Amino acid sequence: MKIDLEQLLYDKFGFSSFKPGQKEVIEHLLEKHDTLAVLPTGTGKSLCYQMVGQLVQGTVIIVSPLLSLMEDQVIQLQKKGENRVIALNSSLSFLEKQYVLNHLSEYKFILISPETLTQKEVRNKIANVNIALFVIDEAHCVSQWGVDFRPEYTKLAKIQEECGFPLTLALTATATPNVKKEILKQVFTQQKAVCEVVFSVDRPNIGLIVNRTLEKNETLLSYVTQLKSKGIVYCATRKNTEKINQLINEQTDLKSAFYHGGLTTNERSLLQQQFVSNQLDVLCATNAFGMGIDKPDVRFVIHYDCPDSLENYVQEIGRAGRDQQPSIAVLLYQKGDESIHYYFQSESRLDRTLLNDLAVNQTEDTKKIMPELNEIQQKWLQGYLEKEYTIEELEQRLLRKEKERQQQLNVMLNYIKEEKCRRTFIQRYFSEEVTKSSPESCCDCCGLSFDNFKRQIVQSPEEKEIPEQWEDILIRLFKE
Predict the structure, then answer these.
(1) 369-419: pLDDT as tens digits
(2) Phi, psi for residue 394 in degrees, rounded to 5
C-alpha cells in the first residue's frame, strides 16, 4: 500500500508541505537506498530520519557531533510525542549509561556521539540491536574532524560492518565536491549505488556583510543594539566569548550569556534552553554551539573573529533565518585576525614532530608516555598501539589535513577580500550554479547596507513577542 507522505507529514509533524529535498530523501530510504543528503541549513534535515523512523520496524541510530545538537533533537522528538528517544553520550552517569545499554532495544531513536559509539562495550550492545536506519548527522564532520581532531569518525565504517551494514543516511548542509567524495568513501563502503540529494547552500534570505573595522568592540555594540533581535556572536576562543559577553552586558540592556566547551553539560543545556525560549537576546559562543539548533527566529549572526574556513562560516551563518524571514550575517575583520588560526596550525606541526619522535624511538615502553600526552595525542597513540596504522601513515594523514586547513583559511581570507559578490563567491566555491539575490538583500559588495537591511528585521513596537509554548515551559521546568 502506497503511503501518503503529505498526510503523514501533516498528521504527525504539523506541516502542510515538505521543504526542498525532504521528500526525495524519505522516498529513497523507504526504497532501501543508502542516501547522501546535502540540504541547506534550516530545511529540516532531521525530519527525514524522524519520519522514516515512524514508518519502519527497528531502531534509528543517529551519530551526532555535539551535545547541544543531541539535546535539541531529543527535546524536539519528545515535543512530537515520541518518548522512546535517548541521547547516549558523556553527559550520562555510569548508572544511567548502564541502564540505557541494557534497554537499547526499547528505544526508537538513539542519538550517540562518535566517541561513545566507538567504545567496545557500546559497540557490542549496538551490534545486537535491530537497526532500521543508521544516520550520520552533520556528515561533513567525517572530513572536517576525522583525523586530526576526532579520529573516532574514521571508525564509523567498521562499526557499520559490525552492525551488518544497515540502511544508511548521511546528512549535511555544506559539502564541496571533495568533501562529498570523502563522505562517500568513509561512510558508504559497500560496493553499491548511493542516492544523492543535493541542494544549494545558498540562503537568499540572509544578507552578507564584511565590515573591515578598526574598532571591533564599538562596531559590535552598534550592531547588536540597533538590531534589537535574537542573535549569535561567534568567537574563535573561549576567552573571547566571555570577554564579549561581559562587554554586551555592561554596555547594553540586552540579556547576554557565553557558551563554550569549557562549561559543564548542565550549564550548556540550560543556556541552550534559555536561548531557544527567548530568555536570552544574545549568545556569545564558540563553534561548540548552534549546529542544528531548532530556533527559527535568529535574526543575526555576527562573527567577532575570523572563521577558519568558508565551510564553517556557511554552517554558522545558516543558524540565522531558519524561518525564511530576512536575516543578516556580519563578519567583523581586522588585519591579522587570522593569526589565531596560524597558531592552531603551528600546534598541529608540533604534534607531527612528536609523532616523528615516537617513530624514531619506538620501544616496548611506548605506553609509558601516554599520561604526558594531551587527549588527541593519546587517541593517535592508541590507534598506533592497536595497529590501525603506522606512525608514518598517521603523520602523512595529518600533513594532508594541515595543508587542507591552510588552503581553507586562504579561501576564507579571499572571501573577506572579495569585491564583486560574496554570494557568487560562496556558490562557486561549492561548485554550484550561481543564483543572485536582489542587490538590496545580497551582500555589501552588491549594494546591501546595514542601515537599509535592519529596517526589514527590527521588530516593530506594535509586534508582540511570540509566547513561549507550554511544551517548552514544561521541559525547561524539568531541566531546572
Answers:
(1) 666 666 777 777 777 777 777 777 777 888 888 888 899 999 999 999 999
(2) -65, -40
CATH topology classification for 206-337+418-479: Rossmann fold (3.40.50)
Cα dihedral: 257, 262, 266, 267 (round 10): -20
**pTM of this structure:** 0.84
| Straight-line distance from the first to the last Cα atom of the chain, in angstroms, rounded to the nearest whole number | 46
pLDDT digits (tens, 9 = 90+) for 336-346: 998 888 877 77
CB contact at 8 A, 427 and 435: yes
The DSSP secondary-structure symbol of 155 reads G
What are the DSSP calls for 394-460, one per residue?
HHHHHHHHHHHHHHHHHHHHHHHH--S-HHHHHHHHTT-------TTTSBGGGT--HHHHHHHHSPP
Q: Which amino acid is at 460?
A: S
* Comparison of pLDDT for 468 and 57, the residue scoring more: 57
Stretch 9-34: mean pLDDT: 92
- The residues, any chain, with a CB within 8 Å of residue 120's CB and separated by 6 or more, are none
Among 3.30.200.20, 3.40.50.280, 3.40.50.300, 3.40.190.10, name the CATH number for the domain at 5-198.
Answer: 3.40.50.300
Residue 363 has pLDDT above 80, yes or no: no
